[in-house]
Amino acid sequence: xxxxxxxxxxxxxxxxxxxxxxxxxxxxxxxxxxxxxxxxxxxxxxxxxxxxxxxxxxxxxxxxxxxxxxxxxxxxxxxxxxxxxxxxxxxxxxxxxxxxxxxxxxxxxxxxxxxxxxxxxxxxxxxxxxxxxxxxxxxxxxxxxxxxxxxxxxxxxxxxxxxxxxxxxxxxxxxxxxxxxxxxxxxxxxxxxxxxxxxxxxxxxxxxxxxxxxxxxxxxxxxxxxxxxxxxxxxxxxxxxxxxxxxxxxxxxxxxxxxxxxxxxxxxxxxxxxxxxxxxxxxxxxxxxxxxxxxxxxxxxxxxxxxxxxxxxxxxxxxxxxxxxxxxxxxxxxxxxxxxxxxxxxxxxxxxxxxxxxxxxxxxxxxxxxxxxxxxxxxxxxxxxxxxxxxxx
Length: 393
What we know:
Blueprint (H helix, E strand, L loop, with lengths): L8 E6 L5 H14 L2 E6 L6 H4 L10 H9 L7 E6 L2 H4 L2 H13 L4 E5 L2 H7 L1 H7 L7 E5 L5 H9 L3 E4 L1 H6 L8 H6 L5 E2 L11 H16 L17 H8 L1 H7 L29 H8 L55 E4 L4 E4 L2 H7 L5 H13 L11
């Protein structure tokens, strides 16, 4: 799903380390998908109450096995990080042990902090700074209710931050997206989804939600958080940076991806810019961008194409070719009747044949009304899972 949505690299904050088999299956899925991934080994989702909010359990020791036997190569396409609970979701004593474990294994660390009223009370970043545990190998997610002093501590120690703008805007209890406060503290954040059971994994949607929240605050429509006046704002160019290089930096792989730089891996997606909304190119990307399956090709590090069967995507079809439907002529009139859905027609834009669409028929079949033409175009743009729309797979 991430590849289909234009995401080339994902940092998997894995909350399902219920057993070694669970972790191995999640890692195997990343290898099989073809995506670049950073697997953040976390805690189990079974007996969740025992593992959060004051938990005395230390991090699962299976992370040692994964580091030694499964993900030992930090230059591979799938690498390992540690997702720790920190003092906000465990205790300071447990957090100290977990952090030392991760650093002994040479792993970068992520934590979810500043979550609602509990985060405001705990001030996890301050606890880490006071005990000398705060360092540049950490990424803090959310920071919604962390104080401005804590944000400056994160910046002073060279740590990174990530804003889950869509989730924080829609999920009650977490607090407000802290993008502008982070910028004021000197931190350029990355963007994250957090959980796809609440918001979409589409990064274009995350960018739009993050910007929309800022616009609401500027308009005075975001309730009690009237603190944006006087804080720095961001624009479309900043959003693209947050989604690309800052995401790579938060995952600890900005030395090989995240920007178009000589020597880095070329993770590229193609976005059409000849369609609305009009205006600045950077605004078009995050305002008009949307995931849409086309012909996906994956290339290896040497440039050779990796063979891959096309799978059924947003519009179904299962990757099976559609048979050509021969043209028929009317014996009475000698005029070709309307083409059948699925019939192959020449498409100069594609440089080859494609299945006939009902929208093509609208232009040559006068009896169809403009209303039907508009409806056809509407369904073509949206599609439906497992169904064909206007003859397009």
